[in-house]
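Bumping with the actual sequence this time:
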Amino acid sequence: MRARTIDHVAIASPDAERTARWYEENFGFVRVNDEIADDPGVRLVFLAAAGDRSNGTSLQIVQPMRPGPVADFLAQRGEGLHHVCFAVDDIASTLLARGQDSREVFTGGYGLPCAFVTDPSPGVVIELVQSPAGSTAPTEETR
């Protein structure tokens, strides 16, 4: 299975509001979504350059709301780059092709199916998100 596009780059922060505001004030990013994902218990703030997600790539700020993988990441590595997300057509097939169990899929931002894998060499965390080809997440203007 091939990645269709880079969906987003995620930054882990103990204070999503502070981090999002910094990108808004310094680079003109616009907040296009702000939600709580109950599983895995994180706040997700999506930012886009000039509010345009049509290119399919955004900046995501991830704040842990309870103990879990993101809180552990912050405790071990501190704030900063958390993962890169690739959009795929079929997440279950992508996981099975890698020898992973499709039960690792969870509901992520925008209610889309997601799963995490790790590049074993440099240890980069990669999120996979299944979204229809050619689709983009809604913006403030289209919600």
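The tokens above came from a reply further down the thread. The chain has one domain: 5-130.
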